[in-house]
Design brief:
There is one protein chain. By secondary structure, the chain is mostly helical. It folds into two domains: about 35 residues; about 90 residues. About 55% of the residues lie in helices and about 5% in strands. The termini are far apart.
């Protein structure tokens, strides 16, 4: 039971509120509901992993790390939504940065691999065609 005057929780069978002294007739029974402004979890890790994912995805030679970090960011975003039921702006931005990091990371990794293959082929071409100086 809760006091209708101050909202304090009362023991069953109380005749008066121990906080404000309100009479038992004014007591109401209700289940405790979470406060509207109850703090939620911290969405900052989602945002941080999203930023790291996108930053490393744009880095070229280590863009595969962007793929890994972006996957972690997407997992953290899903975990945040599962735990708290909704997304804050930071979690939404982090999830979107992770998605962008994942896409950019895949594209940059493929381009880097193609670049490496091209350079190996070009190096082989020059090695075969250099005249022998004896």
């Amino acid at each position: 039971m809760y006091c209708s005057n101050c909202g304090a929780q009362l023991n069953e069978g109380s005749n008066f509120c121990h906080v404000c002294g309100q009479a038992a007739g004014a007591l109401i029974k209700k289940e405790k509901t979470p406060a509207v402004n109850e703090p939620k979890g911290n969405p900052t890790p989602v945002l941080v992993w999203g930023i790291l994912g996108l930053a490393f995805a744009l880095s070229g030679p280590i863009s595969f790390l962007g793929i890994i970090f972006s996957c972690i960011g997407r997992g953290k975003a899903a975990e945040y939504v599962d735990r708290y039921g909704d997304e804050s702006k930071q979690a939404t931005v982090g999830r979107n940065l992770s998605k962008a990091g994942l896409i950019v990371g895949i594209v940059m990794t493929v381009l880097f691999v193609l670049y490496c293959l091209f350079m190996v082929g070009l190096f082989g071409y020059f090695i075969r065609n250099i005249p022998n100086y004896r």
